[in-house]
Amino acid sequence: MNEIITFLREKDCRVTTQRKAILESLAKCGQFFSAQQVFDKVKRAHPDMSFDTIYRNLNLFSAFGILQQIHLPKGDGSVFEITASPHPHLVCLSCGKIRCVDNELVDLTVLNEAVGSGFIICRYSLEFYGYCSACRPARRAAGGGKEADVCI
Ligand SMILES: [Zn+2]
Ligand SMILES: [Zn+2]
What we know:
The chain is of the alpha+beta class. It contains six helices and five strands, in the order ααααββββαβα. The site of one zinc ion (ZN) has 8 residues, from loops.
């Protein structure tokens, strides 16, 4: 967590008491966490902090590349993960399990060359939705046994 604080200071981001409290609570939130989960943790020690403050700071940390936002399907909002390098995620449509994918799949240098000089890609958020190995057998049985029937 101290590395993150040092990193933010280097980027001229003021690490206020509020921000520090949020960062400290992130370490206790598990791998993937929602703004609501962070809010529930932070408000125990800082009852005056609003959900809006938490949400704005999580987005700010995402912009600095400390957090990555993962968008959930079916309008379930998003969760965050602490990460030093952005990478895509696999999200199961059935059980909601999230898996990290090696970031080598997405090469920003290659993408920027493909996009051309009219735009520069700085960061990304990429989710693939499908079914994990635990949920697939049930989907396959329901779809007549073919793997292709899983994707409906
Ligand atoms: Zn699943
Ligand atoms: Zn991840």
